[in-house]
Amino acid sequence: MSEENSEFRSAPTTTGRLEVQLKMLDDGIEPPHYAHPGDAGADLRTRLDLIIAPGERVLVPTGVAIALPEGYVALVHPRSGLATKHGLTIVNAPGTVDAGYRGEIAVTLLNTDTAQSIHLSRGDRIAQMVIQRVEHALFVPVAELPDSFRGTGGFGSTGGFTSG
Which residues of 47-70 are buried (b: 16+ CB within 10 A; e: fewer)? Predict the structure, then answer.
C-alpha cells in the first residue's frame, strides 16, 4: 500500500463514522443508505426487473462497488420483511465482501416459497449491508485444546433441537 493511501487504512471521519469509498455502476439506482437513524444495515437494491420462481436462486447485481478500509468487512444480510412476507432470502447469508474486493456487489437470492414467484422491480430493496471491523487471528497449532464447559457439544447440545 502506498503512502498516499495509508490514511485510507483507518478512515473514521471527524463525525465518528467510517468513510467507505463508493462507486455507483448504475446511475439509475439509489446508493446504499440507512433507512432510519441507528439502523445497522444499509439497503442494497436490484438493478434488474426479475421474477424468481418458487425454489429458484438467482445472482442479482446491485450496481454498487465499494472500497472498504483494511480491517473491515461488509456483510450482506437478507431483509427481514422480504423473508417473512415472501420467503426471499440470501443463499450464503451473510454474504461477505472483503476489504480488497472492488467489483460489483451481487446478491444470491433464493425464493423459499413453494408456490409463489417473487416479482422484483429495478430499484427494489433486496438486501442490507452491514459494515464491521474484522479481527485477524493468529492460528496456533496445539496437540490438545483446553477444557471448557461446553466441550465438544455441537448441534442440539443445549436441548434446543429435537428430531422426529
Answer: bbebebeeeeebebbbbbbbbbbe
Beta strand ranges found along the chain (DSSP E): 21-24, 42-45, 50-52, 57-61, 64-67, 72-78, 88-90, 95-98, 106-111, 118-120, 125-133
Q: Is 100 marked as binding a ligand?
A: no
80 annotated to a ligand binding site? yes
The pTM (predicted TM-score) of the whole model is: 0.81
What is d(CA 16, CA 155) in angstroms, rounded to the nearest whole number?
39
98 labeled binding residue: yes
CA distance readout (Å), 125 to 1, 84, 96:
35, 15, 18
Beta bridge partner(s), residue 106: 61
Q: How does pLDDT run across 128-145, given as a tens digit for each residue? A: 999 999 999 999 999 999
Has 79 been labeled as part of a binding site? yes
Angle CA 97–123–40, to nearest 5: 45
Query: Are the CB atoms for 76 and 129 separated by under 8 Å?
Result: yes
